[in-house]
Write a structure and sequence with these properties.
Aminopeptidase, about 40% helix, globular, single chain, twelve-stranded mixed beta sheet
């Protein structure tokens, strides 16, 4: 009999499972810890899955989101022409099933972000979970690039036209070069990089092998990199996974042109461009100026320890 992960790998091959929930993505990003998956099955058919990243610290189990992964959570294969009330009942049944699985695993703390497609977190609320709404920003139709550009703010259009004269696209830089560039950019702002080179190489190698990832850089005539972006995609959506901008050139339009070049690059490969949104006010406003729609998604959590709950409460108050 196939184990859950083996079943899930097969399921991912023939179902429309999003990029961040794919088994190969979980393999790539869970380099610190392991991953597993809960499956909801009926009559031998998988109707829903819940992949998760399991970490262990001082003997305690934590389920948390892997780095550089916008969401994981639950993915449901809805029946065709499913009426709203039946859909709600199915969601409740599936969520309660997975919540019981979480309880049985002996987890100390649980936190996952869910796909924007997952809009009903009530079953988790009923079982004592907490939820924080986060936002990303998406251009939902890449089929007409002229229309996309028209929806940009005047300032963004001006930045792109300015950068067009001075900067050229380079699709040949390696993951190692990108990592060094990003680290140097952050160093100029007295900040440190928060992900490892090993993690970046793991994601890059797996996505590039499947032709689902590319690093896009902008260089000047002296071959100096002004900005770079690592973009990944599946057939439904592309994601601006990591961006890096040299602070010395932040006003030359390199950042705006970088996103525009990425949008053009993936426009024949997918339908939607996700800016991997931010809760930071300035970043959110910048993404909105690309004509991107604000899209909410849920971060759902629960502490299974009273001590941990108290510590969290104290941290929020201070």
């Amino acid at each position: 009999m196939l184990k859950s992960k083996e079943k899930y790998r097969e399921w991912c091959c023939h179902e429309d499972v999003p990029l961040f929930l794919q088994s190969w993505w979980m393999d790539a990003v869970c380099i610190k810890g392991e991953w597993d998956v809960f499956l909801y099955e009926k009559n031998g058919e998988i109707l829903a899955a819940m992949p998760f990243h399991l970490r262990k610290k001082v003997g305690l189990k934590f389920i948390i989101e892997p780095q550089l992964t916008q969401y994981s959570g639950i993915w449901i294969k809805y029946p065709e022409n499913c009426a709203f009330h039946k859909r709600a009942l199915l969601e409740k049944e599936i969520c309660f099933y997975f919540i019981e699985k979480l309880k049985n695993i002996g987890c100390f703390f649980y936190q996952q972000t869910f796909s924007p497609r997952f809009t009903n977190w009530l079953p988790f609320y009923w079982k004592g979970f907490r939820q924080t709404t986060r936002y990303t920003y998406r251009i939902n139709d890449l089929s007409n690039l002229d229309k996309c550009f028209e929806n940009f703010s005047y300032a963004k259009q001006k930045h792109i036209k300015k950068a067009n004269d001075d900067l050229q696209i380079d699709l040949s830089i390696s993951a190692d070069e990108f990592y060094d560039f990003h680290r140097e950019c952050l160093g100029q702002k007295n900040a440190t990089i928060e992900y490892s080179q090993e993690l970046l190489l793991s994601i890059y190698d797996e996505s590039a092998k499947r032709e689902q990832g590319k690093i896009i850089a902008l260089k000047d005539k002296n071959k100096i990199i002004h900005s770079a972006l690592f973009v990944v995609w599946d057939k439904n959506c592309a994601y601006a996974l990591i961006s890096a901008i040299n602070p010395q050139f932040k006003s030359d339009g390199a950042s705006t042109k970088m996103f525009w070049e990425a949008i053009k690059f993936v426009s024949d490969k997918t339908e939607v461009f996700d800016f991997e949104g931010s809760m930071i006010e300035g970043v959110a406003q910048s993404f909105q100026q690309f004509g991107a729609e604000q899209v909410p998604y849920f971060c759902i959590s629960k502490s299974y320890s009273r001590i941990f709950t108290v510590l969290q409460w104290i941290k929020q108050k201070n």
